[in-house]
Amino acid sequence: MVGKITKIISNTYFVTVQNTTYDCSARGKLKTEEIKPVVRR
Predict the structure, then answer these.
(1) Contact predicate 5/37, CB 8 Å
(2) 1-41, pLDDT tens digit by residue?
(3) Which DSSP string do the residues of 1-31 spell out, in sequence order?
(4) Which has fewest Cβ within 10 Å: 11, 18, 23, 41?
(5) How far is CA 17 from CA 25, 26, 32, in A?
(6) Which 3 state secondary structure label does DSSP give 8?
(7) Taken in order 31, 26, 37, 29, is the CA torsion positive or negative?
(8) CB burial readout 3-27, b (16+ within 10 A) else e
(9) Which residues pair with residue 20 across a beta bridge?
């Protein structure tokens, strides 16, 4: 599943996949490699 991060609020990422929005938290690669995702319009 591939989605687009639409909003970041306090380590909660809102990801849109096929017109459905999921709220997610940083895990795995994002935490271990300290990747900081960027939301662009």
Answers:
(1) yes
(2) 788 888 888 888 999 999 999 998 887 777 788 777 777 66
(3) ---EEEEEETTEEEEEETTEEEEEE--THHH
(4) 41
(5) 16, 17, 24
(6) strand
(7) positive
(8) eeeeeeeeeebbbeeeeeeeeeebe
(9) 17
Which residue has tokens 């639409």? 6
How far is C-alpha 31 from the geometric centre of its chain's CA atoms? 12
> What is the C-alpha to C-alpha distance for residues 41 and 25, in angstroms, rounded to an integer?
21
* pTM for this model (two decimals): 0.67
Sheet of strand 4-9: strand arrangement: 4-9, 12-17, 20-25
Q: Is 29 helix (H, G, I), strand (E, B) or coil?
A: helix
Q: What is the enclosing helix (H) or strand (E) of 7? A: strand 4-9
